[in-house]
Design brief:
The protein is mostly helical. The chain has 16 helices and 2 strands. The protein is globular, with a radius of gyration of 24 Å.
Length: 316
Amino acid sequence: MIGYILKRVLSLIPVLFVVSVAIFLIVHITPGEPAAVILGLEATEDQVQELREEMGLNLPIYEQYFNWVTDVIHGDLGNSYFMKEPVTEAIMKHLEPTLSLAILGEIVALILAIPVGIIAAYRRGSAIDQSLMVISLLGMAVPSFLLGLLLMLLVGVHLQWLPVAGYEPIQEGLWEHIKYLILPAISLGAIQAALVAKMTRSSMLEVLNTNFIKTARSKGVKEYKVVIKHALRNAFLPILTVIGQSFGTLVTGAVVVETIFNLPGIGQLIINSIERRDFAVIQGVVLFVTLVYVLINLIVDLLYGVIDPRVRLERK
């Protein structure tokens, strides 16, 4: 098992290398002089040149990349010119809202998706099944930002049950922290719930028609145990894959929703950095987000062996 984990970790190195090259090139081939954009129209040529030298933009691009990668390997993502602080610190400051939103959004998705998928599979072909699948399709079709705006209008403005925007850190109290995240979490979680529900139904249908389920029923095992203990457990690997991907999407793809609800998360950080052409922050955030996504997929892969013993046997 340790050898397998080591092999999977080492396989991430080429992925991160390719991503680092892509990030660096995309940022640096964007039209416009970065130093001039940062300083504004009133900056003199000498000031622009001085900033270019300070940021290392006067060096050949391959040398800039080598210096950046060397610093990243040593844990240094650079410094933000505008925020006057290390990029790592800026990411950590903005990580809590994004992580809290992703966790709450995933909880919303699972609470909605797993029961819906199980019921739809169990009632296959019935009106209940068709209704639930139509709702799932609608969930996938409605953009998260549109659902967020509708929730803001209905729940926040008309009913005034929850705040429409803003953020409170968890240190101010759990409820104060969560109430600002409920609406954006529902906005994001609804789409992920539709995807997970669809996969849960599909995976459950395959297992419910197998011989060992028929055998369990013939032995008089209670129906809820057949469905939950036997069918769901054996159908869970594909569902786990979708859950892992959905959580990765929630962590890395909540930019629009964070902007709408004015959450000071990773999404807002990268949007502000793009507007300012803050190279160090853009490169650091995108690399960090990529690392988080591949680590989530690695964790999901390792959980396969915990859920299904057959996976452990194949690895041996």
